[in-house]
Design goal:
The chain is mostly helical. It has 2 domains: about 5-35, no CATH class; about 50-140. About 55% of the residues lie in helices and about 5% in strands. It has helices at about 10-15, 25-35, 50-55, 60-80, 85-120; strands at about 130, 140. Strands 1-2 form a two-stranded antiparallel sheet. Strand 1 and strand 2 (about 140) form a beta hairpin. Helix 4 packs antiparallel against helix 5. The chain is rod-shaped, with a radius of gyration of 27 Å.
């Protein structure tokens, strides 16, 4: 048997027991809601924050900088020409700063895409969504509304 999306429209309407012009009656809609549940897709499990942070270190350039940090630290340990391995510390701080900035940027982008998706669904967006007005450059918080 073909999936519903490959079948002819009259066949799908007949299989679902509905009318294309009128739709379902109120009682039939309630019955189907209690029988089958709401028409929602299961939510995707969010990626933990620590995995998003660790993912910032998977870039080839970052790996090369980490290798350079290790080489610099090993050379400092071998030569001991200064009290601290300043080069290794500097490179490590740059890599860490890059990872923090990349993580924060990814979080903001994910939050913005979730807010945009909430607006596209024409439903009440979550209270944590922020919209920016281009003219005033002020952040606008959506307030929860009473249903």
């Amino acid at each position: 048997m073909k999936p519903d999306y490959q079948r002819a429209v009259p066949d799908v309407i007949a299989a679902l027991g509905t009318d294309a012009a009128r739709g379902l009656t109120e009682t039939e809609a309630r019955t189907r809601l209690t029988t089958f549940g709401p028409n929602n897709l299961p939510a995707e499990r969010p990626t933990p924050a620590w995995r998003k942070f660790v993912a910032q270190f998977r870039d080839l350039l970052v790996i090369l900088l980490l290798v350079a940090t290790a080489i610099s630290a090993l050379l400092w340990w071998y030569e001991r020409d200064s009290p601290l391995p300043y080069e290794a510390i500097a490179i490590g701080l740059v890599v860490l700063l890059n990872a923090v900035m990349g993580y924060l940027q990814e979080q903001r982008a994910e939050s913005a895409s979730l807010c945009a998706a909430a607006r596209r669904r024409a439903c009440r967006p979550p209270t944590w969504c922020q919209a920016t007005s281009s003219s005033s450059k002020k952040a606008i918080r959506f307030q929860p509304t009473r249903a």
